[in-house]
């Protein structure tokens, strides 16, 4: 486990009381921390009084300061260990109800000035409806890539399709585009743009995101 992961996890855990308070006010009901089992099985960090399961992610202020990153939310995609990931739990197993995704104020403050509460049900339905194109950054020139992609150099973005496609994929302009990024802890995550989804994805928001989303 990398030092970066540990540092980020500590940063997030320190702000969980703030997350709980925001959720209690937003949802109009009490909540509690998820048990270790609930976290591992249901991708859940907080459970509301009505049983709603909520995953939580709090990112550092530097991610908010980047106008591109502030429009994103991320979900863990792969673990080198082979353990079940957040994406598998949420999309393939249908677990989890909401995702709280916020940005901290700075390194010392426990405030979370910007946040979205996202519907995992809408997220799942959109992935199932439109499928997904994952953009992966090439680390080397691959000899087995389809010839229609042309020359691929290290650093170029190449697509991988979900569900997996055999042969040339059918044209689908509505595919949800995600970007694969590797962490320093033998895991990877997918970054999605909020405006790639209908506005029903965002249940509640602090405001300030300046995105345009279509209705379902």
Description:
The protein is of the alpha+beta class. It has one domain. 25% of the residues lie in helices and 29% in strands. The chain is built from 6 helices and 11 strands. It has helices spanning 3-14, 16-27, 36-42, 61-65, 86-92, 120-130, and strands at residues 31-33, 46-48, 53-59, 72-79, 98-103, 114-119, 132-137, 157-162, 176-182, 187-193, 202-205. A 6-stranded mixed β-sheet has the order 1-2-3-5-6-11. The longest helix has 12 residues, at 3-14. The mean pLDDT is 86.
Summarize the structure.
The protein is an alpha+beta fold and 216 residues long. It has helices at 3-14, 16-27, 36-42, 61-65, 86-92, 120-130; strands at residues 31-33, 46-48, 53-59, 72-79, 98-103, 114-119, 132-137, 157-162, 176-182, 187-193, 202-205.
Number of strands: 11
**Discrete helix count:** 6
Q: Largest sheet at a glance?
A: 6 strands, mixed
Shape: globular
What do the pLDDT scores average to? 86
Helix content: 25-40%
Q: Give the strand order, joined by hyphens, for the main sheet.
A: 1-2-3-5-6-11
Poorly predicted ranges:
none
- Structural class given helices, strands, pairing? alpha+beta
Number of domains: 1
The H/E string reads HHEHEEHEHEEHEEEEE
Spatial extent as radius of gyration = 18 Å
| Share of β-strand residues | 25-35%
**How many angstroms separate the termini?**
40 Å
């Amino acid at each position: 486990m990398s030092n970066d992961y540990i540092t980020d996890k500590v940063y997030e855990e320190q702000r969980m009381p703030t997350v709980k308070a925001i959720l209690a006010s937003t949802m109009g009901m009490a909540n509690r921390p998820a048990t270790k089992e609930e976290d591992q099985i249901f991708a859940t960090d907080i459970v509301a009084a009505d049983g709603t399961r909520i995953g939580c992610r709090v990112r550092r202020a530097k991610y908010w300061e980047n106008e591109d990153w502030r429009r994103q939310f991320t979900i863990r995609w792969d673990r080198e260990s082979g353990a079940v990931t957040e994406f598998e739990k949420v999309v393939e197993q249908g677990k989890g109800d909401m995702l709280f995704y916020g940005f901290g104020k700075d390194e010392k403050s426990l405030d979370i000035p910007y946040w979205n509460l996202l519907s995992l049900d809408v997220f799942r339905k959109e992935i199932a409806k439109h499928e997904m194109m994952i953009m992966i950054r090439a680390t080397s020139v691959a000899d087995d890539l389809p010839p229609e992609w042309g020359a691929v150099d290290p650093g170029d973005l190449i697509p991988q399709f979900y569900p997996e496609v055999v042969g040339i994929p059918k044209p689908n302009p509505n595919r949800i585009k995600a970007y694969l990024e590797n962490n320093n802890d033998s895991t990877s995550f997918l970054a999605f743009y909020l405006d790639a989804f209908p506005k029903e994805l965002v249940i509640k928001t602090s405001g300030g995101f300046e995105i345009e989303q279509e209705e379902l």
